[in-house]
Structures are given as structure tokens and as C-alpha cells.
């Protein structure tokens, strides 16, 4: 099972074909298998674990949520249903934090 490195919120996304992109003004730094996100606008720092960092890297404006789910399932060798739940939770959290937006 994959583990997402941000607390869960009860948010649900309905547009799984939505393209997602990182906010341009977010500063990210990779440290080992994790990524730190610095949001100067909100004055916050977020630490993403390995799986969350992988998903963050896929939010480049050209890959849909469905494609990210498929890639997570394949690259982390997990069931597609589990990948779908975990990716949706993380994407909802990143949208809630306003560090990614629909492309």
C-alpha cells in the first residue's frame, strides 16, 4: 500500500480528466526522496514524502488525474483502485492548499 505524506481532507474531485499544474510561484526543493514546497504567498512550507513527491512531479499541466493514477499504479506496483483513492486524496489536498491548479 502507498502512503501519502499530507494529512487527509474529506474532499472529492469529480473531473478525473482534469489536467493539473503546479503554481508557478511555488518553490520546490528535492531532499533525498522528499520534496519541500515553499509557498511564500501563504507563508507555508509543505513536506511531501516519496509518493506525494512523485505525484507532485506529474502535475505539469499536460497529464490528467487519470493518467497520474495509472502511472502510480504501475510505478509503485499497487492495485489501480488503491492508487485511485490515494492520488485523489493527495490531489484534493494540493488543490485545497492552492499549490496546484487546473491547467
- Estimate the mean pLDDT confidence: 87
Biggest pleated-sheet summary: 3 strands, antiparallel
How is the CATH topology named? Outer Surface Protein A, domain 3
Helix fraction by DSSP (H/I, runs of at least 4): 25-40%
For this structure, the quaternary state is single chain
Number of helices: 3
Strand content: 25-35%
Give the CATH class. Alpha Beta
Order of strands side by side in the largest beta sheet?
A: 5-1-6
Shape: globular
What is the alpha-carbon Rg in Å?
13 Å
Number of domains: 1
Detailed description of the structure:
With 103 residues, this protein is of the alpha+beta class. The chain has a single domain (19-97), classed as Outer Surface Protein A, domain 3 (Alpha-Beta Complex), CATH 3.90.930. Helices cover 36% and strands 27% of the residues. The protein is built from 3 helices and 6 strands; from the N terminus they run ββββαβααβ. The chain has helices at residues 50-58, 65-75, 80-96, and strands at 19-22, 27-31, 34-39, 44-48, 60-64, 100-102. Strands 5-1-6 form a 3-stranded antiparallel beta sheet. A hairpin with a 4-residue loop joins strand 3 (34-39) and strand 4. Helix 2 (65-75) packs across helix 3. The N and C termini lie far apart (29 Å).
Amino acid at each position: 500500500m502507498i502512503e501519502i505524506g499530507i494529512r487527509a481532507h474529506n474532499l472529492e474531485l469529480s473531473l478525473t480528466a482534469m489536467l493539473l499544474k503546479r503554481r508557478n510561484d511555488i518553490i520546490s526543493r528535492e531532499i533525498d526522496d522528499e520534496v519541500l514546497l515553499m509557498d511564500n504567498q501563504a507563508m507555508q512550507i509543505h513536506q511531501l514524502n516519496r509518493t506525494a513527491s512523485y505525484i507532485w512531479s506529474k502535475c505539469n499541466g499536460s497529464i490528467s488525474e487519470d493518467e497520474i493514477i495509472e502511472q502510480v499504479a504501475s510505478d509503485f506496483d499497487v492495485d489501480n483502485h488503491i492508487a485511485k483513492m490515494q492520488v485523489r486524496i493527495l490531489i484534493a489536498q494540493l488543490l485545497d492548499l492552492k499549490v496546484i491548479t487546473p491547467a
